[in-house]
Amino acid sequence: MIGSGGREHALVSALLSDPAVTELACAPGNAGIAAAVPTYGVDLADPSAVADLADEFGADLTIIGPEGPLVAGAADEIRSRGRAVFGPSAEAARLEGSKSFAKAIMDAAGVPTGQAVTATDVAQAGAALDRFGPPYVVKDDGLAAGKGVVVTDNRLVALAHADACITAGDRVVIEEFLDGPEVSLFLISDGRTVVPLQPAQDFKRALDGDAGPNTGGMGAYSPLPWAPADLVSEVVETVAQPVIDELADRGTPFVGLLYAGLALTPDGVKVIEFNARFGDPETQAVLPLLESPLGQVLAAAAGGDLSRGPRLVWRSGAAVAVVLAAEGYPGTPTVRDRIDGLAAAEALPDVHVLHAGTAIEGDTLVSAGGRVLSVVGLGEDLTEARTNAYAGIELVELRGSSYRTDIARDAAEADSSAEADVAPEPDAAPEPDVQVDAPPESTSEAELS
Ligand code: AMP
Ligand code: GLY
Asked: What integer is the mean pLDDT of 260-287?
């Protein structure tokens, strides 16, 4: 397992419950992962180093968590050495790494998404803003190229961001605003076919009520009781399979996890973004509900034939993941503070703690990143799952830390109220002038080595 965040801790936990997984190691990991499996240091930006580790370990399967190593070509390097890897090639990972590439693929495959214009100078950008009107959506084309996505009603702010993106990377993507609740759907692909996981919803803003700056994700829940019953099959048919087919036709099959970030607009489901890896923190809420042996499923995908793996079976009930953020996050977080209370939280029934930015200093567990950990609550329904998650996170002590108190609240209330028939829209309404892309930390790397 490659990576160091809460997502990777959730993957490690799920893999360890697969009887076919006889040995597991993680690089670089975090304090929670290190308590479960051996961990090794590795430079994630160096594909040869990642592949060397897979060789040294004699790995039958390497699973790559974050997008950085994928875009850098780690999966290609491991594959070229004859080893199985779950994670797309650098070329296929451009689906996440380049917004204009993703748009071109969706165009060619007839996938519903917002209209977009790639502009290479400010005059073009201004014309595109006027064509779409407010709220304006302005996206940096590249991955961690820096300034990310701005959604704003202020044309001057939109234009300034476009100008900055063009200055830094020669182009900018201006997009139509997509209105409606957001859904994260993960699909496992063997390069030809896809198997969907249960959908989840992510809470991107730092503060309750979707206020404050954007983050890597402050919490998530699954399943979505309010989502249309045919949502997943519709997305497979209209989004995922066409994209997988298009990449296969181009000779660059996508083997790995296709993350479809969707908006349920009044005109139907539309793609906001693709990622080429599991989402964080959605993975922490989705995987605890999976009954099937994950290692065998991912190995079948990596081997090019999902039909040879087990079918996906889900347990009934719900999961809610609440992220504990360090002081300062999503700006520069305070690190190296002592964390207490985890044993008490983990002793509660149906409560699991998944580490992200944690490290051991001496004998002490300390914070080592912006998103420190997530507490996952399980239950018969969302109400019970969130009660458990919050009972757990209340026991965790970290000076200056915070968490949102409204993760899955609207969905739980709507679910338990008989007359409710309206989907909650926790992430739907942007506030003016807010930088909504995640800072580089968002891909859940621990920050202290
Ligand atoms: P992205 O990096 O593309 O995922 O964008 C980050 C966040 O910005 C998304 O999760 C949405 O909340 C918001 N966003 C991005 N594109 C759009 C759009 N076209 N319409 C509305 N919101 C958007
Ligand atoms: N939770 C959003 C992401 O993983 O990109």
From this structure: 97
CA distances from 409 to 135, 221, 245, 387, 406 (A): 27, 10, 38, 10, 5
Q: Is it the case that residue 147 has pLDDT exceeding 50?
A: no
Q: What is the mean pLDDT of residues 266-276?
A: 96
Alpha-carbon radius of gyration of the chain? 21
How far away, in angstroms, is 439 Cα from ligand 2 center?
11
Structure tokens at 135: 């709220």
Per-residue pLDDT, averaged over 1-24, amounts to: 98
275 CB within 6 A, ligand 2: yes
Strand-pairing partners, residue 117, are 174
Distant-in-sequence, close-in-space partners of 239: CB < 8 Å, separation ≥ 6: 111, 112, 260, 262, 269, 271
pLDDT tens figures, 67-124 = 999 999 999 999 999 999 999 999 999 999 988 899 999 999 999 999 999 999 999 9
Q: Residue type for 359, please?
A: A
Mean pLDDT over 8-26 rounds to 98
Evaluate: CB of 357 within 6 angstroms of ligand 2: no
- Token output for 329: 């996050």
Nearest ligand to residue 428 Cα: 1
Q: Which residues 6+ apart lie within 8 Å of 412 measured at CB?
A: 381, 382, 383, 386
Identify the weakest region by mean pLDDT among 105-119, 162-176, 187-201.
162-176
Amino acid at 336: R
Which amino acid appears at position 136 of this protein? Answer: Y
pTM across the whole model? 0.92
Residue 268 backbone zone (phi > 0: left; psi -120 to 50: alpha; other: beta): left
Angle (CA) 33-71-54 rounded to 5° is 45
Cα–Cα distance for residue pair 218/215, rounded to 1 Å:
7
* Residues 6+ away with beta carbon under 8 Å from 71: 90, 93, 94, 96, 97, 143, 276
Contact 173, 117 (CB under 8 A): yes
Q: Is there an atom of ligand 1 within 6 Å of 151 CB?
A: yes
**Contact of 167 with 133, CB cutoff 8 Å:** no
- Name the DSSP class of 198: -
Please state whether the peptide bond connecting residue 310 to the residue before it is cis, i.e. omega within 30 degrees of 0.
no
